[in-house]
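FORM 7B: Structural annotation worksheet

SECTION A. Query
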Amino acid sequence: MQRLARQFVLQAAAVFLAFSIAWPFYALRVAEWNGAAVALLAGGSAFLLARYAREPWWWQAIHLCFSPLVWLGLQLPISPLWHLLAFFLLFLIFRGALSEQVPLYLSGARILAPLAALLPERARVLDIGAGIGSLLLPLSRMRPDLHLSGIDNAPLPWLIGRLRVPGSGITWRWGNFRGHSLDGYQAVYCFLSPAPMQALWEKACREMTPGSLFISKAFPIPGRMPDMLAGRGEDTIDTLYVYRIPHRVAVSIRVFAPVSG
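SECTION B. Predicted structure
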């Protein structure tokens, strides 16, 4: 939420900057009011502020397009209730983008075979951000020996997935990875975004058994080399970054009593 608040501050600063630049021209009647120009100025300012703040490229793109798209939406000759409905629908689909900076990504069929080949026999596997079950359902047919679970916290994709999985043997859960224990899974798969990867990796190292598999599509763990790559090669959207959970290092502290003379 702190990162999300930062984006709101950047956007608000850009809008304030745009109006500060535009106000003298329109207040002094130097030029007629042009909402499109102000919206473009606000979008450009937001982009430059996000770039200066070294935000990820997708946040820079969102800041660039936000104000112009809002202005375009306000020009549509429709009831304001449609805007409210569109917002509500987007929230139901992309709630994860607000809470965890994770938009809705579908894994796609191209990584199904490489992923199935990586998983141990009869393994318990968790798909974090399982969406509508587009990966787990075909995986359950390809590898019926696996014990599959999916978890998601976006209401509409979760509901669609919940309606699709009965009879497949897949366990379907509501929530995000922070509130769900990873203990007992031999493999965890995710297709999220760069934002939560470090926190998820640290949680996996605390809770999963050493030697278990942590598999991320497209997004590597910052600062850590994968144990292997699978899928379609390095630096493509279909790359699988495969990590083995390391053994925990036990640290013992020995207390010495003072030697009396």
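SECTION C. Observations
The two ends are 60 Å apart (CA to CA). The chain has two domains: 2-77, 109-244.

SECTION D. Sign-off
Analyst initials: ____
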